[in-house]
Please model this.
Amino acid sequence: MTQAPFDCVHLHRIDPSINMARFYRVTMEKTLFGETVIRRSWGRIGTRGQSLTLTLATDADAQRMACEMERRKRRRGYREPGVS
Model:
């Protein structure tokens, strides 16, 4: 199965009943040295949150990992901002 090129995904999970307002962002970028990195950011909406950067050997590995990260968050209820 071929996947569309991954660039960036920004997701929210909001549940007022338990005072939850979270964001999750995954971006795939190239470094100055040609390496592919995945940058993950997460936290409460309205804050800077936290971030983690992973360096991967190939674009294909980075593509697979980024898509898997997005899939896991969507299974936990994260959606695009503005989508119910």
Observations:
- The chain has one domain: 8-75.
- The longest helix spans residues 59-75.
